[in-house]
Amino acid sequence: MEKVTPKERLKRLLGPRLMSWYNRVRLRLQVPRIFLSDYRRYRRHSAYFHRETPSARELEITVLYHSLEKGFLHEGGDLRLRFGRAKVARLLQLLQAWREEGLPESSQIIAAQAILSAYYSYHREREADISDYFPDSAYSALAHHSTRRAVEVLPEEARHGDFATFAPSRHSIRRFSDRPVPDELLREVVRLANTAPSACNRQEVRVHSVSDPAIAREILDLQGGFRSESEGIRQLLLVTADLAFTYMEGMDRQQPYIDGGIYLMNLLYALHYHGVGACAGNASLLPRDEARILSLAGCRESEALIAIVPIGFPAMPILTTPSRRRPPEETLLG
Ligand SMILES: Cc1cc2nc3c(=O)[nH]c(=O)nc-3n(C[C@H](O)[C@H](O)[C@H](O)COP(=O)(O)O)c2cc1C
Questions:
Q1: Atom 22 of ligand 1: nearest residue by CA position
Q2: C-alpha distance from residue 173 to each of 37, 143, 176, 207 (Å)
Q3: 175 domain-assigned
Q4: Which of the four, 75, 126, 225, 324, has the lowest number of CB atoms within 10 Å?
Q5: CB atoms within 10 A of CB 192
């Protein structure tokens, strides 16, 4: 006897027109459920709601040590002694708890200890007293891993080598010379970046060039991730994804962000290939600030911000953060 699935039975019962109406309604009703399930997942797993898990604590450690690394980019410029002391104190506290609980010394814990050691030595060399928040005993308790405070990038470093040389030669650049990046060069950069793949080749990503320093400044003030560099930043690229290209009900809701992230990486490589320095900037914004930024850059209302990317020709010497990477064993699982 022929086996009839429940779906097939319903189709026979309703006929093609009613069935298509039924499907539309069913999928439409899925949309709020899918968004609600996003929220539930975020609520259940995000570090924001679960600050005491090892992952959340490792994340806090990473964010804090990265901020100290960024501080050291100002060495030789406006770096103040005792900078970031609240962050140092918190890092020491987090690392002490980490050690006491016998948690594993991952690459990010090593990176944090290394930059703290560098911080301690930097102040010692300058005979600056930091004992009120970084006592000698805390220094002795650190496992001593050496690191450079900032990494100097060679101007022509392997820009045109094969991928295995090219990819690690890209670094975030946050200080730029006064020379503007010409429009023709940006067009070539975007031509190359447009080789990025996207789901169904929908290509919903847009790049808005902001070359008015006053507007760039206003955008960066709202974004907040380049507080100590924003004065020297004159040009930005805003990477957006147009949500008008999300077409498959709720299931498609994140595709523009995924395509946007893939595009962003290709754009960073394309900029690097053409000798333009850049640093991705996060779009972790309140909706009203995101809307303001999008309107300042003349974007359509349907565009969602993926990243704000300061660009320019690098200022010499080209300095970047060590930003230690996880080894494959921490990333490739199973
Ligand atoms: C999506 C994204 C957002 C970022 N946001 C900022 C930011 O707001 N400010 C900043 O100085 N760096 C930002 N960065 C740069 C990271 O700190 C940097 O990529 C990381 O430390 C690795 O260093 P590298 O790019 O030199 O390899 C961001 C990077 C990404 C990918």
A1: 323
A2: 38, 30, 8, 19
A3: yes
A4: 126
A5: 16
Residues 246-301 have pLDDT tens digits of 888 888 999 999 999 999 999 999 999 999 999 999 999 999 999 999 999 999 99
- Of all atoms in ligand 1, which is nearest to the CA of residue 265? 31
| 142 and 160 belong to one structural domain | no
User: Are 123 and 81 within 8 A, CB to CB?
Assistant: yes
Query: Would you say residue 328 has pLDDT above 80?
Result: yes
For residue 130, give Cα distances in angstroms to 81, 84, 150: 9, 11, 21
Quote the DSSP letter at residue 230: G
Domain count, the chain: 2
pLDDT for 269 equals 97
Q: Are residues 164 and 272 in the same domain?
A: yes
Same domain, 140 and 159: no
87/204 same-domain check: no
Statement to judge: residues 161 and 299 lie in one domain? yes
Q: Is residue 328 part of a domain?
A: no
User: Is residue 333 included in any domain, yes or no?
Assistant: no
Residue among 66, 115, 170, 172 to mutate when testing ligand 1 (max atoms within 8 A of CB)? 172
How far, in Å, from the CA of 290 to the mean position of ligand 1? 18
- On whether both 206 and 60 belong to a single domain, the answer is no
Domain edge (last residue) among 128, 149, 170: 149
139, 140, 144, 146: CA torsion to nearest 10: 40
Per DSSP, the three-state class of 104 is: coil
The two three-digit tokens of residue 43, written as one number: 């609520």
Name the residue among 305, 155, 314, 159 with its Cα closest to residue 237: 305
Calpha distance 282→264 (Å, rounded) = 11
Closest by CA position to 240, among listed 309, 311, 310, 307: 307
- Domain of 253, CATH number, reads 3.40.109.10
Does ligand 1 come within 6 angstroms of the Cβ of 278? no
